[in-house]
Amino acid sequence: MKKKIPGQKIIRLLCLLFTVGILFINLSCTVYAAQGTSKTVQSNDSTEKSNGTKGDSTNINGAGQATSAEDLSKLNIANTVSVTYTSNNGTLAGSLRILLTLTAIALAPMIIIMMTSFTRCLIVLHFTRAALGTQTAPPNQILIAMSLILTFFIMHPTIMNIYTNTVIPFENGQIDQQQAIDSGMKPLRTFMYGQTQTKDVKMFMEISKTEWDGKLESIPSVVLVPSFMISELRTAFIIGFLIYIPFLVIDMVVASTLMAMGMMMLPPTAISMPFKILLFVLADGWNLIIGNLVRTFY
C-alpha cells in the first residue's frame, strides 16, 4: 500500500486556489462615470454598485464658459487630450508616409541602376581594372563606392531640382501625390533623354507600336527607361574599348620581346602587368579616366 505524500496535498490545494482565482478574475463589472449623483447599476455578480450612467460626464464647467487659459484647463480635469499636427495639411497619414518611405528605400537600388549614371560609371571602372590585369585591385567594394560617389556628383543638379520643385511643395501641401510624382519624374526624364540615342528610342517605340513625334513629352517612361539603359551600355563599352587600347599595345610589345628572347614559356601577362601599372601611374590614369567619364554627361 502506497503512502500519500504530503506535498501532493499542497499541490492540489494550490491548483484549486488558482482555479477559483481565475473564475473571480473573469467576472466583469460595468462602471460609468458620475457627476455628483449616486446611481445603482446591476453588474454580473448580482450586487449593486454605486455608479453613473452613459449620459453622465466628468466636466466641471460647460462648453464656452472659459475666459482665460486657466479656465480652459479646468473645463475637464478628468480627461486630458493633447493633439499634435504638422504642416502637411493632412495629405498623408503617418503610417502611410512610413509605408511610402520604406517602399522608396526598397526601390532605391533599382532606381539608381536604371535612371542614373551609376551603370556607366561602374562598367567603365570594371573595364579599367580588367585592362590593368590586377584581378581584384581595386576590389569590388571600392569600385561600387566610387561609382556611387560619381553618381551623386553627376546627379546632384537633378536631385536638387527634384527636392526644390517636388519635395518642398509636397510637404507644404501645395501639390497632391499625382502632381508630386509627375514633377519628380520630369528632371529624371530630362536627364535620361539627354543621354539616350534616338535610334534606341525609335526601336522601343516601334516594338510598342506607338507613334513618336520626336519630343520628350510623347515618350512613355516604360520606353525611355530601357532606351536609356541600352544607350548607357553602348557608351560604357565604347569607353572600355578606348581604355583597353594602350594596355593592349603593352601586352603585344612584351609578348614580342619575350618571343624574340626565346622565353616562350614565360607568361607575357606576368611581365606586362608591372609596366601597365607604371604607365597608368605616370599618366595619372585615374584622373584621366574619371575626369573624362564625368565629362561625358555634360
What would you note in describing this structure?
- There is one protein chain.
- By secondary structure, this protein is mainly alpha-helical.
- The protein has 10 helices and 2 strands; from the N terminus they run αββααααααααα.
- The termini are far apart.
- The model is unreliable at 31-51 and 81-91 (pLDDT under 50).
Please give a handful of descriptors for the protein shown.
298 residues, two-stranded antiparallel sheet, 10 helices, 63% helix, extended
Strand proportion, as a percent range, falls in: under 5%
SSE succession:
HEEHHHHHHHHH
Please bin the fraction of helical residues: 55-70%
Residue runs with pLDDT of under 50 for 5 or more positions: 31-51, 81-91
Mean pLDDT: 76
By secondary-structure content and strand pairing, the structural class works out as mainly alpha
The count of helical stretches stands at 10
Report strand order across the widest sheet: 1-2
How far apart are the first and last residues' alpha carbons, in Å? 101 Å
Count of distinct strands: 2
Main sheet specs: 2 strands, antiparallel
Broad shape: extended
What gyration radius follows from the Cα positions, in whole Å?
Answer: 38 Å
Protein topology:
Layout: H1 6-26, E1 39-42, E2 48-51, H2 69-73, H3 94-115, H4 118-132, H5 140-171, H6 177-194, H7 198-207, H8 221-260, H9 268-282, H10 285-295
Helix pairs in contact: 4-5, 4-8, 4-10, 5-6, 7-8, 8-9
